[in-house]
Design brief:
By secondary structure, the protein is of the alpha/beta class. Helices cover about 30% and strands about 25% of the residues. Among the domains are: about 140 residues, 3-Layer(aba) Sandwich (Rossmann fold), CATH 3.40.50; about 90 residues, ANL, C-terminal domain (GMP Synthetase, Chain A, domain 3, 2-Layer Sandwich). The strands form six sheets. A nine-stranded mixed β-sheet has the order 2-1-10-9-11-12-13-14-15, with helices on both faces. Strands 16, 17, 18, 19 and 20 form a five-stranded antiparallel β-sheet that branches.
Amino acid sequence: MKNSMKWPNVTEYIKAKVFQFGDVQLIIDYETGVSYTYREFDAETDRMASHFRKLGVKRGDRIAFLHPNHSDLLLGYFATIKAGAVAVPVNPMYTAREITHVLNDSTAGTLISTEHFYEKIQVVKKKAPSISNIIMKKEGQSLGEAVAAMPEGHTPEDPAEASADDLAMIFYTSGTTGKPKGVMISHRNITFSAGNMAQNYGLTASDVVVVCLPLNHIFANASPFWGSLASGGSAVVMERFQSEAVFDAISKYHVTWFAGVPTMFNYLISSFDDSPRNVSSLRMGLSGAAPLSVEHLKVFEAKFGASMLEVYGLTESTGLVTANPVYGVRKPGSTGLCVSGVSVRLVDAKWKDVKRGEVGELIFKGPNGTSGYWGLPGETEKKIRDNWVSTGDLARQDEEGYFYITSRKNELIISGGYNIFPREIEDVLYRFPNVGEVAVIGVSDPALGEVPKAFVAPKPGKNLERKKLEEFCLENLARYKIPKFFEFMEELPKNSTGKIAKKELK
């Protein structure tokens, strides 16, 4: 999206933050204890960017990262962007086939990984002809050391100054509706979203966050890290989410806020009473990527003594679209108000605005919006009209402007002519005692077309009875909304971000 004002590129943005917060700690690696101040982060990413250019990386080239969560991964992303290239995160849980698709689709010339993925890389490199450089970290080696050890064959000129509209990263979607698509993220998307999140979350230089969401996903980069970068705060990076490690980090580093998906909060709540917990520093939980049940929100706030903010965004929005206010009315079950600098509408199938209170597809426009999908102009054209980005999510807005996500368009259940929103049923079932996880989908029915089916997992060590669940639903739902089928599982399947993977239940 074009803008007449001078918008900073990512390098300029980081330099400005160094001027403000130079010797403040920016990153702490939980597993190794390695840390970087704002000044050290800037210097190290400058060095790595220089090495990338000496390896022959040119402006616009793609560098792919197959790497677990680590401080090195954030250094690598920003070094890539500083080199004028484009960072392409790759989900480390992907199979060799899926990794090959991302590498070939992005035509990445360089792949950065660790020895842990050696066998996968041997398979992949034979099928990804664009890869000319493979930088593989050895055990105990930093990414900076691994990059510096590569043979240099070029004497590059300093890269031209990046435009705000230049491509910075390509995040691949989870592929729930087909092959993963590359969402293009510009310098402007990042610098706008960083400041926007710091503002909407009320972040300051005294805030500390845990980053345990997967860094191949936009959520982990945007909310915890970019928000911290913008505010002068600190980020504790973990390889993966583990309840006990999170509790330890909160106590050890005086963590003030935690960003996660609903399943993470469910685990933290379940583990809270197992032993004494020191969470007195925590002031805010931030839930996104999937709906959080109202019941779990209330339990979290009661146990942790911290506010819970529900927010809404997606990869295509580089972060926030709506958010409950930090200092103002927070409405449980709502994803809050439209954030500053972003416009939001609810529209029908013809993109005409629906009336307040009615359900429509949520679309948005702003400096956070993607320019489209890498190499897919047809998909981009379907997704974006006059800079308005379609989300595929259905929502309603109350009289005070708060948004409520009801479901994704492709999750809407139409049963005997009635529209059924899975979220409504899930919220009811979460209120039933001993229910730990719930997912509702539509399944085919010869008479009604579709009917709801509920997949339910009990809390650890608890049991559930179908008859009692049905009775509870009858008391709280219209009869046509009551699941026709219940399936009990020990645990519901999750994707790499910790969201319940409904596609695996179909």
